[in-house]
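RETRY 2/3 - previous attempt timed out on the joint model. Re-submitting the same 222-residue input unchanged.
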Amino acid sequence: DAGVIQSPRHEVTEMGQEVTLRCKPISGHNSLFWYRQTMMRGLELLIYFNNNVPIDDSGMPEDRFSAKMPNASFSTLKIQPSEPRDSAVYFCASGLWGSNYGYTFGSGTRLTVV
Amino acid sequence: DAKTTQPPSMDCAEGRAANLPCNHSTISGNEYVYWYRQIHSQGPQYIIHGLKNNETNEMASLIITEDRKSSTLILPHATLRDTAVYYCIVRVDNQFYFGTGTSLTVIP
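RETRY 2/3 succeeded.
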């Protein structure tokens, strides 16, 4: 199993541009989570899905952020327009909803907005 | 949202056991305790989890007190590669909320 795959690994963009981060969960997992990590705020849960349906997006910081999961094998996190304060490492994790096992995290996307 | 308290940092000599404490005094009866670690620039890695019994796997042991208000993660023979931030998490409604964790430094 290749694990949770995120792309790109690094993204540098100019303020005001649209940014799309991608995540492929582990096959068979039915829940997916997006986290953001910064030095100031640590790891923050942004949004999570169960069976491709968004369950809770209360962690999404602003309307500029949106996430979709069109099918069980793909999710995107979009920021439009991007701002310098969005610079962070964004992690995706997947797991089995209702299972007691831990979730598996991807390697993250390091986003820099200049 | 974090329901756990951990010391911000700890040191451990290479080859010795690393004992990382965690307080979770408000834990509910059916909430599990999970431990993850994050090595610099990598995604968090699952280590172990437990409800009330002590648990052991190939990575570590988890000791949970009888009242379940605290736990200890034990790395039996710490190596330099165990240097990382260790997070103790109480899972709430299928979600993991990470606190600030303990930064463990293994010293040669």
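Strands of chain B lie at 9-13, 18-23, 33-38, 45-50, 55-56, 61-64, 70-75, 84-90, 102-107. Closing ticket.
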